[in-house]
Amino acid sequence: MAPPNTFIPGAAPISGQVPGTAPATPGQVPGTAPAVPGMVSTILLLKYKQTLFHARRLYVAGLPSTATEKSLKTFFNNAMSRIGGNSAGPGDAVLNVPVIKHGKKYAYLDMRSVEEASNAMALNGINFEGVQLEVKRYIRYNPLDAAPPGPSQPNPNLNVGAVGLTSVSVSGLENPDRIFVGGLPHYLTEQHIKRAARVLWAPS
C-alpha cells in the first residue's frame, strides 16, 4: 500500500488537488508544501518575542542636551520606585537605555516588564533637569497584540504626586476610538485632516 500523500500515476485527482501532485494534508493550501508543526511553533514564538520587545520599549522625547544613558536610567528607576510602579518586584524597572539621540532629543527605554512599561507611561510630563519629558509608546507597539503579555494602561493607583505630577497624564494611550494615520504631507492642518476623515468615514 502506498504511503499517505503519495502521488500515484493514473489515479484520479482528489477535489482541490493540483493534477500531478500529491493530495494536500488537512489545512494545507493545494500546490504548497505541507506546514511543519515545529516550524509553526517557531514562527509563533518569534512573533511573541517581537510583540514583547515592542511592548516593553518606551519612547522619551524632549531631552535636554545634558542627558546621558546613565542619568536617564537612574532618573526613571527612581521615579518608578517613588510612584509605586515596580510591579515586578524589587530591582530596576528600566533595564537599559539602548538609544539616545541628542540631536533629535529623544531616547528609548527598555523596561523589565510590560506592566512596568505601562506604569511608566504615567510619568508623561515629568520634569527632568528643568524640562518636561514626553513619555510615549514605541512606534511599533500594537495594543491588540500586546494584550496577553500585560496591561496597556498604567495602574490607576500609582502615586504620581510623589514625582510632582498632579494626575496620570498619559501620552498616546490606545483605545478603540483612536486610530493612527501616518505619512501625511507636512502642510496639512488639523482642519484638513478632520474634513478628509469626515468624507472617508461618513455614515452611509
TrEMBL record:
Classification via SMART domains: RRM
GO biological process: mRNA processing; RNA splicing
Lineage: Eukaryota, Viridiplantae, Streptophyta, Embryophyta, Tracheophyta
PANTHER family on file: RNA-BINDING PROTEIN (PTHR23139)
Organism per entry: Cinchona calisaya
GO function terms (MF aspect): RNA binding
Keywords linked to the UniProt accession: mRNA processing, mRNA splicing, RNA-binding
Domain RRM: from-to ranges: 56-140
Record protein name field: RRM domain-containing protein
